[in-house]
Amino acid sequence: MAKAVLVATHNLGKVLEYKDLLQDLALDWLGLSDVGVTFDVAETGMTFEENAILKAETYSAETGLLTLADDSGLEVDALNGEPGVFTARYGGKGLTSKERYELLLRNLADVPWEERTARFRCVIAVYDKGKLIGTAEGSCEGLIATEPAGEGGFGYDPVFYLPDWCKTMAQLLPEEKHRISHRGRAVAGIGPLLRRVVGN
């Protein structure tokens, strides 16, 4: 029977993304909804790493499961690194992903193309049996497009433009995104550690 690993999210898309990225591991991938966890951990950390560790520790203690948590976000240079750790809450509560990236585009309306540099950053933490197993970080550089394009991905993907690909993140095929994304690169760092924990 495959060992269960809890991905600390209510977002099914993120659970499936991890399953794809680590498909060579014999794991039973679960999201918070699968194990009846309805509360959200307050992300009080000042960095992505602090928030990832906080979530992994809390949900592992709550469920007793090997838990993988990440904190990720978008850093826009012209906005002094915002939205950063507040990426998922940008603009306040109750906004859709589309409304959030539309707000971002409005806030960058007068910023010239060459100054719209940005990056997605992700830190993953793994917690098991009351112990932090380790963390890994990945980032992906790009520019904020002037308008959305593409139907894939989620969040800010439609407005995150990749010059080397001449596409937004949302226009990439899933396997292309996995190879270059901030989460994909962080997984590359956490994968060997996770393999040792699960024994395959």
Structure write-up:
The protein is α/β, with parallel strands linked by helices and 200 residues long. The chain has one domain: Maf protein. The chain contains 5 helices and 7 strands. The chain has helices at residues 12-21, 48-63, 97-107, 174-180, 182-198, and strands at 3-7, 27-31, 66-76, 117-128, 131-144, 160-162, 167-168. It is globular, with a radius of gyration of 17 Å.
Instruction: Report the principal-axis shape.
Output: globular
**SSE order in H/E notation?**
EHEHEHEEEEHH
**How many H/I helices?**
5
**CATH fold group:** Maf protein
Q: What is the CA–CA distance across the termini?
A: 13 Å
* Nearest-integer average pLDDT: 92
Radius of gyration: 17 Å
CATH class (first level) name: Alpha Beta
Q: Can you summarize the main beta sheet?
A: 7 strands, mixed
Summed up, the domain count is 1
